[in-house]
């Protein structure tokens, strides 16, 4: 009998310490109850709203939109055709204008080329060679002047650098003597 009471007590202690099923079951039931209370059956309500919206669309909106499309779609289609035809005409006009511009440029270029040929044929080759030689001489003189000017500027710059260098060296020397004399 003592064995039975000890065995019962050990089983009870074992159940309380190691068997967590009742505690977990209580927590799970509490969580589910809280979750359902917070939701307050929102999902069925939302599904009912969606069903109502779908019914309304099937009964009202779709037939109305089909009627409106039957009434207005031919008019819209005709307007789109007119607009595309106008766009095509504008594009054709621009293509013609571009062709005319290109032809005008080509004819101007041909006339210019003819003018230049006449000018060169009217001048004799000796004159052209003399003009080229004189331009070459003037160019060479110009380059010589530029090189000479660059050399003058470089020498002037170097002289200024030397003057400044000597000036600052003199100032440092004077500063050095004045600090030595006062010490």
TrEMBL record:
<dbReference type="GO" id="GO:0031083">
    <property type="term" value="C:BLOC-1 complex"/>
</dbReference>
<dbReference type="GO" id="GO:0030133">
    <property type="term" value="C:transport vesicle"/>
</dbReference>
<dbReference type="Pfam" id="PF14942">
    <property type="entry name" value="Muted"/>
</dbReference>
<comment type="similarity">
    <text>Belongs to the BLOC1S5 family.</text>
</comment>
<dbReference type="InterPro" id="IPR017243">
    <property type="entry name" value="Bloc1s5"/>
</dbReference>
<protein>
    <recommendedName>
        <fullName>Biogenesis of lysosome-related organelles complex 1 subunit 5</fullName>
    </recommendedName>
</protein>
């Amino acid at each position: 009998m003592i064995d039975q009471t000890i065995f019962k007590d050990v089983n009870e202690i074992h159940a309380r310490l190691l068997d967590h099923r009742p505690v977990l079951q209580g927590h799970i039931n509490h969580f589910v109850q809280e979750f359902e209370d917070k939701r307050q059956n929102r999902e069925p309500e939302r599904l009912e709203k969606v069903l109502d919206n779908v019914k309304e669309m099937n009964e009202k909106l779709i037939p109305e939109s089909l009627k409106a499309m039957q009434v207005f779609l031919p008019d819209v289609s005709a307007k789109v055709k007119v607009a595309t035809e106008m766009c095509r005409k504008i594009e054709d006009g621009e293509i013609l204008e571009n062709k005319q511009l290109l032809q005008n440029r080509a004819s101007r270029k041909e006339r210019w080329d003819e003018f230049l040929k006449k000018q060169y044929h009217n001048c004799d080759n000796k004159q052209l060679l003399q003009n080229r030689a004189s331009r070459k001489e003037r160019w060479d003189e110009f380059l010589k002047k530029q090189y000479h000017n660059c050399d003058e500027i470089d020498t002037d710059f170097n002289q200024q650098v030397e003057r400044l260098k000597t000036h600052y060296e003199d100032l440092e020397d004077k500063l050095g003597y004045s600090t030595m004399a006062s010490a």
